[in-house]
Amino acid sequence: MDGGEKSALASELAQVLAMVRELEARMDQDPLPAGARELCAELASSVDRSIRIARSCCVDSLASGAGSPRSDGGNATAAQSKRRQGTPCVRRQLRTASVQDAAALDDGLSWRKYGQKDILGAKYPRSYFRCTHRHSQGCLATKHVQRADGDPLLHDVVYHGAHTCAQAAHPSAQQLRQELQLQPGHGHGAHEDQDQGASTPALETECLRAGLLEPTTPYSFASAAAAGAGADFAGCFPLLSPTALDWQLRSSHPAGSLGVGIGMEFETQFEELFTNATEPFQWDLYADN
DNA sequence: TACATTTGACCACA
DNA sequence: TGTGGTCAAATGTA
Question: What is the pTM of this model?
Fold first, then answer.
């Protein structure tokens, strides 16, 4: 990371900090002031920019194997990668508000659970879902959901195959299809092709810069993890991206219902953002400037 | 009654 | 042979 990038990152983070403080102050007010939502969105995009800067700087060190291994639930993915060769997949991580909260895992598509399996080395079992319309419409889309070892609120969701049923028109399904099509070779899993596509992180960065990858979508590890460079690049971002955080806040607190409780939840998630991100980013930037 | 979930068993792959 | 992925019967629920 050169000096310019460091200062760009430091500047972004300084903005984030200022906005968090402001948001914190506004959270005490009831009802929530009009600007709070906008501030959340700004906050999200600012952290998102920070992550992009950090990511573009970290890729090289990650490619050389210097990246930190997955800290949560990732020990099972190596074995998993032996399976489903030839099926493109998209991986996401979603955080729920509580252990019982399943709403945050709802992607708007209808799934039917068809199995659950204890995974070697994983603390929590993996659940297997397939499209409800598998039999009626021959839709072969499936997804696997597994709770992270280190953080029970964090769920690893792996999607296999695009929806071909009536749900294919759903925004979530279309987004998934787009991400699946971004898979190198369109036939390898996100974490399956660690031996190819070293240029993919650059591609992703370019897409992000060009606005081809919508920052408003839930954070996907697909292209990052698909990159050979990031052998397990996803593990370097052990939490939701701020954009996904924003998305979650929006989805779990629909318009008008953004209540008092959000303050604590938001605060907790940001606390995690800063504490968890410290290692992978190694941001001693303030000391550095 | 229809549909979803649970769970033990089976299969395929490395 | 061990493990992940899937099947299908049993069970639960609206």
Answer: 0.49
